[in-house]
Task: structure prediction
Amino acid sequence: MPQTETEVRHEDWDGRDLSGQVHTGVGFADVDMTEVTNDGGVFTGCTFADVQFNVSVHTNAAFLNCTFTRCSFFDARFTACKLVGCTFDRCTFSLVKVEGGDWSFVGLPGADLSSASFVGVRMREADLTGVRGEGGTLRDLDLSGASLNHANLSGCDLRGCDLSSLDPTNVDLRGAVIGWEQAVQLMTALGLDVRPD
Result:
């Protein structure tokens, strides 16, 4: 948990424009950030506990080394945002849409991403242990070095993802959608000798 220097508690920020704002070492607790807009805002070393980010829109924003606990992101949108080193604990991500950006070193263990959409996101060395992504969309992701142990990706659209760090023996991939190159990659990971006909 980052060490915070100031706190914002029990406030209603519903619909605020946070564009360009800079917050460092701030603890946000029970704050309503529903429908906020955030173009280029930067949050560094902040903590968010029981914060509502529902229907919020974030563009070119940055959350660096922040911690989110019991936060709701219903129908939130992140476009070209940086969330490097952030940790999410018991948060909900229903209908979240993430396009582009850098989420490397993010911690999402056990997160339910079954209705979420992550497209074109850099997620190097992310902790996705036990992630529940059944039927979700995780496309064109850089997952190099990511931990996917015991993840449920059944029925998930994984086309274009780097699956080099995925162990197909401890990830549920039933019905997942992948491309030909990924299929060869997974077969090789299983120890098969893949050759042309």
Remarks:
- The mean pLDDT is 94.
- The chain has one helix and 14 strands.
- Helices lie at 180-189.
